[in-house]
Amino acid sequence: MAKTVVSFTLNGSPVDVLVEPRELLIHTLREKLATTGPHIGCDTSHCGACTVDLDGLSVKACTVLTVQCDGAEMLTIEGFAKAGALHPLQEGFSQEHGLQCGFCTPGMITRAYRLLQENPSPTEADIRFWMAGNLCRCTGYQNIVKSIQYAAAKMRGETVATSHPVLAE
Amino acid sequence: MDTNIETHARLEKLEGIGCSRKRREDPRFIQGKGNYVDDIKLPGMLSGVMVRSPYAHAKIVSIDTSKAKAHPGVHAVLTAEDLKPLKLHWMPTLAGDVQAVLADGRVSFQNQEVAFVVADDRYTAADAADLVEVEYEELPAVVDPFKALAPDAPVIRPDLDGKNVGAHGARKHHNHIFNWQIGDKDKTDRAFANAEVTVKQDMLYPRVHPCPLETCGSVANYDAIRGDLTVWITSQAPHVVRTVVGLLSSIPESKIRIISPDIGGGFGNKVGVYPGYVCAIVASIVLGRPVKWIESRSENLTTTAFARDYWMTGELAADKNGKIRALRVNVTADHGAFDACADPTKWPAGMFHVCTGSYDIANAHVSVDGVYTNKFPGGVAYRCSFRVTEAVYLIERMIDVLAQRLDIDKAEIRRRNFIQAEQFPYLSPLGLEFDSGNYAPALERVLEAVDYKALRAEQAALRADPNAPTLMGIGITTFTEIVGAGPSKNCDILGIGMFDSCEIRVHPDGSAIARMGSISQGQGHQTTYAQIIASEAGIAASQIAVEEGDTSTAPYGLGTYGSRSTPVAGAATARAARKIREKARKIAAHLLEVAPDDLEFDLDQFKVKGDPARGKTMKEIAWAAYNNVPEGMEMGLEAVDYYDPPNFTFPFGAYVCVLDITKKTGETKVRRFYALDDCGTRINPMIIEGQIHGGLTEGFAVAMGQELPYDEQGNVLGGTLMDYFLPTSQETPHWETDFTVTPSPHHPIGAKGVAESPHVGSIPCFSSAMVDAFAHLGTTHFNMPYNSFRVWQHAKSLGLTA
Ligand code: FES
Ligand code: FES
Questions:
Q1: Ligand 2 centroid to residue A139 C-alpha, Å
Q2: CA distances, B405 to each of B199, B401, B413, B415 (Å)
């Protein structure tokens, strides 16, 4: 099949990549651009493990063709920490134990990022609604909600603390 | 005051047992730097894809691979014919049966592996897989285990023709696998004959799938020059895989390296050895290049290891006051087309015999029949110890049925039957020794927390109102789990005892590395094992690197499933750390010129008794271990421990669930779920809470929606996330958690294991609540999953939907 060059900005850096028209963005990212943070958890666009931020929208990278991304601005989990400093969402997920096996985590954080861009003070119900396209088999979501609340508070400039102090018991 | 602050600071630095230490695993996962199998990319790596059968039961007339082989970019197409010369077309299962790696002249379940296509990349491999032409001659399929036992039922396994004795004794029919019995049948039958009351209930624990978010997969790399095989694999038991691969390939284990890198959840799905792994290995050996095989979600849901599919009949004999005298259980277990259950060799129904539960029942008898059907193989433990979810479900349902029959409150009947605290260690009528428990206080605490009386009053008022649009169900479970397999006298896999191991090396600077035979799939071992060592050997957890999953570096272990990591590998870790501490004591005594007994261990140092100003820190001792040890002592500070537990551990819990059900639609809302777990000593409360949330959520999923049904032709319905229910953040209830602590008397630090209790305990709790909602109308049971449609159907049958 004839291949096409596609150019876009990935986590702030320009990339050019040669793909078949049928190639899915998730495969291009993972196999050609060494961006293995977004994962593949299904074949029906249900799990959200592959979520990336594409031109200001959360997108399931398994459901987009790479050729559709020409000229796009793309953010994946690899673009969150800046100069060694974690993004508040990354910190929140760790402090509130919002991950276990970690397989859903890149997608979760990327989706939560979009939520907080649109709504800096989401309620628990807002968070549960917004995150419903991202499945997690390990955590039961309760600590993911808390992680996002932690990050939201921190991004609003409030003081935050883990709800799991080291020496509680 | 000052000493308190100082101790607090030292404890905080040590981060030992009981601390909510933040996870060591997190930094890589939150930055997208995990290393899962599909992230691995080797130079020259090829991609493998399976060709699968569309039929549940068929003869293979012919396979034509010529077009696929001619497709550009294709390197090989393997079929059973190619594997035959290597004797790899069949492989042994963990249950003493054999399984076709690639179909050998016939297929016996839908999506069975028929051919393996290897190409430059996954797109090319998928294209070529479509070009493999297979001609089938369809045979009648049987998907119902009872019909499979009919005299004229289709023969599912002609390869077993004439084999009247299987791995677990006599086979009574061509589709029969085993009959397993335990308990005193005569005494139990007599107790039933003389009982004041008996109850009987059929129930189905449907076929479900653990469905971790990462599917199964592997990358095999055979180095022809060195003769070494390296396999990265999604395995919960990498050492067992190495032994199996060695047996299959005749490559010595010393030349096989199995690496379980980061694993995206397991829940039992990743215990077995699957045809895809074997094909990737063969292809790599044949082609001399690395070969990756990653299954899709639908392949995962329809071929690699289901759980449950247990058709159970329970019976209780009791006095009029609800005191249980005997339990009788008959199970028909659907194992699919190959018996690939992951159970200890001796017990083909796992630890199902924990089914007497938290109750003091004098007589019990269990009989389990395993049956072949045209469904995919498995029978793994989905977030539970072997068949324990089924056992707990049975007894918790049965005690509710008895309560309803006798019109005794469901909490009260439990009180009347609990094993009392002073009865531990308690020998059950089915031969298990329950290590410790304290059931009554746990139940009372939960009932008080939810104000049980008020809930029952509210329910009574609602029932009295015929116009009420909703029903209210209150569920209770007081379950006992059995985990930590296991004593090697009872438990082995492929003849290898189910011990586990830990090796610790303390470096000259006082930091350390520890390696275990277990493997984390999200449980946070890198975090919690370091905490055990911190408390036992006085080395700050932050200074301890924990490594698992690489068979070339880690000591042999049986892996992580059945909540066995803490009970077994955790015990080995504590014991290895104690060996370090005792050697350190001798070195400290030598340095301080006192007798070892004159020293006491204080968090991270040894102090001279009566002269606490004199002492040596572990850091100082570690340095001395490499330059100044007592005469006759070996240099270095290392220890290894292989731990064969004397017994299982028996975590328990008390749960209450409150459901609100809309009569007209069957829609169900979890109003409240309160879970009290007792897992003995708590190593990391934050991680325990996380495990409990996860287990409860998986329990909710099973009870409310998960099922892998089949149609009559053997088509699996529900093989994608379109149909198979995984709860989202929207449906998942809010969980309330609580705990008591009843340490295990035989575990070095008293820990019991926790990750599976909430799954095992919550499912019957949902059933209890669901049935309770309809109990006043005579319902004693109806089968899961309780999706709205089924609940509506049930409500309709009772005339509630009008
Ligand atoms: S891989 Fe599941 S939604 Fe993209
Ligand atoms: S942390 Fe494992 S799937 Fe979410």
A1: 6
A2: 8, 6, 11, 17
